[in-house]
TrEMBL record, chain A:
Residues 81-295 form the ABC transmembrane type-1 domain. PROSITE patterns: ABC_TM1. Keywords: Cell membrane, Membrane, Sugar transport, Transmembrane, Transmembrane helix, Transport. It comes from Kribbella antiqua. The keyword Repeat does not apply. Its main location: membrane. It is found in: Cell membrane. It comes from the Bacteria. This is Multiple sugar transport system permease protein.
UniProtKB/TrEMBL annotation, chain B:
It is found in: Cell membrane. Pfam families: BPD_transp_1. This is Multiple sugar transport system permease protein. The chain crosses the membrane at residues 36-57, 103-122, 134-156, 168-189, 210-235, 272-294. It comes from Kribbella antiqua. Residues 99-294 form the ABC transmembrane type-1 domain. Residues 1-18 have a biased composition (Low complexity). Belongs to the binding-protein-dependent transport system permease family. One of its GO terms (biological process) is transmembrane transport. Coiled coil: none annotated. One of its GO terms (cellular component) is plasma membrane. It is a multi-pass membrane protein. Residues 1-30 are annotated as: Disordered.
TrEMBL record, chain C:
Gene3D superfamilies: Periplasmic binding protein-like II. Residues 1-24 form the signal peptide. This is Multiple sugar transport system substrate-binding protein. Keywords: Signal, Sugar transport, Transport. It comes from Kribbella antiqua.
Length: 304, 308, 451
């Protein structure tokens, strides 16, 4: 019964749209600002990527696709890309599953003090980056920090969060800590839109907690899961803040090309290689967009 | 924080809340609270709280204590209130100026972003106009390009427009939240029943009027979520103001606090970690307040989503 | 409904505004402005500078120097017809990024900016700074130490007046040395012996911290007599395997490979902690360090002392580490007034407030002033530290120059030499990798690099 109600909703969805160009009235304002702040700089970056300029002596030369050829053969770029790919495959599922479980737990009405959990889990996202260096410097510090205390406690020196072997997990930990709450809220607010009748119907049907989750809640979360996944993929490919924070603590472990985004950033800011930096950004954008699009197509039932 | 500590201990919470909870039994609508589930969640809570605890404890320390006492315990002196006073008065009270700037950027930027994203998400979900697919593709493609690498092109563009070193350099980019649009698109798809819109059209209401009178109310939980994300991301916006602004009296808190933190570096270094930490803690407080104010809209979401 | 209407008005207004902006962006966005080096060559003399002071006006000054506020206040009190907008646009790289962006954009740069010696060529060579020779500032040469005077030059141009200097000395924790019976090292061999003895006696203590720092490495090569970077216009030579470089690595390798230096990065809170509690026993660093220690390492008061830098042969020799100049930007609308302000800051009345804030002078008169030299420091247990530090200023090895793109070089140091530090292996491998990367970059940017 519960499943058939859910299925009914899906067929109802297909009739939902109103064929009318008036939609532009609603989309237009957003797109105007979007064009200025996203599309124009990207257009400019594409233009830049076709040239090569020398920072010290000027001389802007049109080089066609040379920068792209260089990028595709650039071992630093692929090194960085491989790193974020590993990060993506391992960290994103862990984070999203934790967020999903937290959202279901808070929404289940079975939790004591659910409101308290909701805000505390979200809080890490609100910590400003500048203090994150001090905070993680303390937690990961193996001279005076928590890591040193744990090592002393167990009489080892095994815990070295800032060493090269530990670094990627250390970054993954920070990202998870920050973003579980973020994704939890996406899921939680999606659960809030589930109509009460669906639960009543499931209850009349005698569905237990887990059956209700499977038959009512998860289908309702589908859209939210797809967005959370897409934005997590984009976030992973654009990984920047967290390694950049840890770089002040472990300058030799985190190279200037630790992630593709850091590479593009450092090319541009330290090396004034704006053309090549723009090229890296565009190449990365294309790869990311393709993967995100595939996820969107596979994830959403409705064909857009 | 004082309101949350009241609900912190589960044992007392159960006994006081049972009066509110009329339903008994294991009905999925009003299930029993589960100590096991709460216990598991408490474990996760600890993971979340340890770094925040460090932040809170550190805010009670003087600069000297920060360097000489263990991280997760209090120092010799309890300097919490002195730190707050010093943070607010340091450098002629520049912190308050930064706070004011941040509030301005958040109110205009995040408020505008929510409005634009809500309208656009609704438009995409409920109207089958030509070019909808293209909008989606362009959006996804643009968001996929890493923004930090575009900072210099963006700066040069804004500089040509004469926008650098003005509040508009911060506000205009904050008005766009592709994530918010995406979120509202998905919400609008599910939460606004087409029957209701058709009914309103039969009554002769215009499309814009339908949006403001019918759709907005139904979208409330989604709007609140979008607003919250927009508020936090504008509040924490660091990179863009760093590039765009070179007038300290326009800085938001994030850039200002980083400037304080950088005092610990190089010739003439004079670290004021205690103020950086206290300032960061103070920066989080308004976000907590915003969260607490906004969260009641999720509660009403359940009924708002249902249609008669 | 009133509320709704207001929102609608807002939406319409917002849309109009953004449409306007988009149109403007399309006009301006595609304009690829050059490197901003087209500023007209202003001619002038000392008279022009003096006249500008009389005429008055407004200038903007970007700096992160702590004493700047007091200096600017004093300047405006002395010249009420001049207004100086003091801006802290960031520290170090943030500051340079903004400066570079403003230069590239062609507007928005200040009239006067603080620039560290190592960064000066990177701004001077592309023509972003005003050559102060045109105002006859070369006449002030005798006022400054030879090493700082050399540091404000790039090619034949004079691009600022020295603000401070940082001749290196050995700061050491006397309490730790006494506790473990370690004598103050006079040579690097003795220093290594001290490092071993200390770490053996207390495995948590290290002779110093070095997690790989470009500024420190270049200063140490400088002290060892190396001249790895030479530039003459477009022609650049890089040799990080010259005699001086190898001399340094053969010493420092022993510390790095032996795990005898702490890997705590400088300027972090752990570092300040470690300086206070004896974890880090010495710091070979610039003469500006006492000011930092007094304000930031309170736990070290009474424990620390200063000695001349250890050397390779026991003869006095040291290098500069850190230090800044103030330069006039080409974008300045009133370069003569900006130059006048620079002269006031670093040659005239501005020097005193700078020294009062704990800065170390570059001016020979102050370095010889008995009131300065013979001042006893309470923090350093009553030691007359300036006797040691001014002595160091006299023994800076001559002939050093930084790369024309030192900022870039420093940014990739961690990718190359940092790897050697991380794996505790031969620093020469890292230096070679650094050199290769710098040669490739230089050639790409239009230099003719040999290396």
């Amino acid at each position: 019964m519960a499943e058939s109600v859910a299925a009914g909703r899906v067929t109802a969805r297909k009739r939902r749209v109103h064929k009318d160009a008036k939609g532009w009235v609603f989309v237009g304002p957003f797109l105007a600002v979007f064009a200025l702040t996203f599309l124009a700089p990207i257009g400019y970056a594409i233009y830049l990527s076709l040239f090569r300029e020398q920072a010290f002596f000027g001389g802007n030369v049109f080089v066609g696709l040379d920068n792209y050829v260089e990028a595709i053969q650039d071992s630093k770029f692929w090194d960085a890309f491989g790193r974020v790919l590993v990060f993506l495959i391992v960290q994103v599922p862990i984070m999203l599953i934790l967020a999903l479980l937290a959202a279901l737990a808070i929404d289940s009405l079975r939790l004591h003090a659910a409101g308290f959990f909701r805000i505390v889990i979200f809080l890490p996202y609100a910590v400003p980056g500048v203090v994150a260096v001090l905070m993680w410097g303390y937690i990961y510090g193996n001279n005076f920090g928590l890591a040193a205390d744990l090592n002393d406690l167990f009489g080892t020196t095994a815990i070295q969060p800032l060493s090269s072997h530990w670094m990627l997990p250390s970054i993954a930990n920070i990202v998870t800590w920050e973003f579980v709450g973020y994704n939890m809220l996406i899921f939680y607010s999606a659960l809030r839109t589930v109509p009460g009748e669906l639960y009543e119907a499931a209850a009349i049907d005698g569905a237990g907690t887990f059956r209700t989750i499977r038959a009512v809640k998860l289908p309702a979360l589908r859209g939210a899961i797809v967005i959370a996944t897409i934005f997590s993929i984009i976030g992973s490919f654009q990984l920047f803040n967290e390694p950049n924070i840890l770089r002040t603590l472990a300058p030799n472990v985190i190279t200037t090309y630790y992630t593709p985004n850091m590479y593009a950033y450092n090319l541009s800011f330290a090396g004034q290689q704006f053309n090549y930096s723009a090229t890296i950004a565009i190449v990365m954008g294309i790869i990311t967009a393709i993967i995100a699009y595939v996820v969107q197509l596979r994830g959403s039932r409705e064909a857009l | 924080m004082s309101t949350s500590t009241a609900t912190l201990t589960p044992a007392t919470a159960t006994s006081t809340t049972t009066t509110r909870k009329k339903k008994t039994g294991t009905s999925p609508l009003r299930p029993k609270r589960s100590p096991l589930l709460t216990g598991v969640m408490v474990l996760y809570l600890i993971y979340t709280l340890v770094p925040l605890l460090w932040l809170f404890i550190s805010a009670t320390k003087t600069q000297n204590d920060l360097l000489s006492s263990p991280g997760l315990w209090f120092g010799k002196s309890f300097a919490f209130f002195t730190n707050i006073k010093d943070t607010l008065t340091y450098n002629d009270g520049i912190f308050l100026r930064w706070l004011g700037n941040t509030v301005l950027y958040v109110v205009v930027g995040a408020g505008g972003a929510t409005l634009l994203a809500t309208a656009a998400g609704y438009g995409l979900a409920k109207y089958a106009f030509a070019g909808r697919r293209a909008v989606f593709a362009v959006l996804l493609g643009a968001v996929a390009v890493p923004g930090t690498a575009l900072a210099v092109p963006t700066f040069l563009m804004f500089s040509n427009l004469g926008l650098t070193n003005t509040v508009w350099a911060i506000i205009i980019p904050s008005l766009v939240s592709p994530f918010g649009l995406y979120l509202m698109w998905v919400y609008a798809t599910d939460a606004v029943p087409v029957e209701l819109l058709e009914a309103a059209r039969i009554d002769g209401a215009g499309e814009v009027r339908i949006f403001f009178t019918v759709a907005l109310r139904l979208l409330a939980p989604g709007i609140v979520t979008t607003l919250l994300f927009a508020v936090v991301s504008t509040w924490n916006n660091y990179f863009l103001p760093l590039i765009m602004l070179s007038k300290p009296n326009l800085y938001p808190l994030t850039v200002g606090l980083t400037q304080w933190s950088n005092q610990a570096t190089g010739v003439g270094a004079h670290p004021i970690y205690n103020l950086v930490i206290t300032g960061s803690l103070l920066t989080i407080v308004p976000l907590v307040v915003a969260f607490l104010l906004l969260q009641r809209f999720w509660q009403s979401g359940l009924s708002a989503g249902s249609v008669k | 409904m009133k509320f709704n209407r207001r929102i609608r008005q807002l939406v319409v207004a917002g849309a109009a505004l953004t449409a306007l902006a988009v149109v403007a962006a399309c006009g301006g966005g595609s304009d690829n402005s050059g490197s901003g080096s087209s500023g007209s060559a202003t001619t002038g003399s000392v008279d022009a500078v003096d006249a500008a002071l009389k005429a008055g006006g407004t200038i903007t000054y970007w700096t992160w120097t702590p004493s700047a506020e007091a200096q600017v206040k004093a300047f405006m009190a002395q010249y009420p017809n001049i207004k100086v907008n003091l801006v802290n646009a960031g520290t170090g790289n943030d500051h340079y990024t903004k400066l570079q962006n403003a230069i590239k954009a062609g507007s928005g740069a200040p009239d006067v900016a603080q620039i560290e010696y190592q960064a000066l060529p990177q701004f001077a060579l592309p023509g972003s700074l005003v050559d102060l020779n045109q105002y006859g500032f070369s006449q002030y040469e005798s006022a400054y130490t030879a090493s700082t005077w050399a540091a404000v030059h790039a090619g034949n141009g004079l691009y600022g007046l020295p603000q401070d200097s940082g001749p290196m000395a050995l700061f050491y924790n006397k309490q730790v040395f006494d506790k473990y019976g370690i004598a103050v090292p006079k040579t690097w061999d003795e220093y290594i012996a001290a490092a071993k003895k200390l770490h053996a006696a207390n495995p948590k203590a290290y002779i110093t911290n070095d997690s790989g720092d470009a500024g420190f490495t270049t200063s140490m090569i400088w002290q060892a007599g190396g001249q790895p970077f030479k530039a003459d216009g477009k022609n650049v030579t890089i040799n990080l395997q010259d005699d001086g470089s190898k001399k340094w690595t053969s010493t420092w390798n022993q510390l790095v490979e032996g795990g005898l230096v702490s890997q705590i990065p400088g300027w972090t809170d752990e570092w300040f902690k470690a300086l206070g509690d004896g974890t880090i026993a010495t710091l070979p660093t610039g003469a500006w360090m006492p000011g930092v220690m007094e304000s930031s390492v309170k736990a070290g008061a009474g424990k620390w002392a200063v000695a001349p830098m250890p050397t390779y042969d026991g003869q006095p020799a040291t290098a500069e580490n850190g230090g800044s100049t103030e330069s006039v930007l080409k974008q300045s609308a009133n370069p003569a007034l900006a130059a006048a302000f620079v002269r006031w800051l670093n040659h005239d009345e501005g020097v005193k407030p700078f020294l009062a804030s704990g800065g170390f002078p570059a001016t020979t008169a102050d370095l010889k002033d008995p009131a300065f030299v013979d001042k006893a420091s309470t923090y350093f247990g009553g030691q007359k530290i300036n006797q040691v530090l001014t002595g160091a200023a006299d023994s800076v090895v001559k002939g050093w120059s930084y790369l024309p793109y030192e900022l870039y070089a420093n940014s990739i140091y961690g990718d190359t030499v940092g790897k050697s530090y991380q794996s505790k292996s031969d620093l020469n491998t890292g230096l070679k990798a650094w050199q290769d990367a710098l040669v490739a970059y230089g050639n790409q940017q239009g230099f003719q690099v040999n290396g």
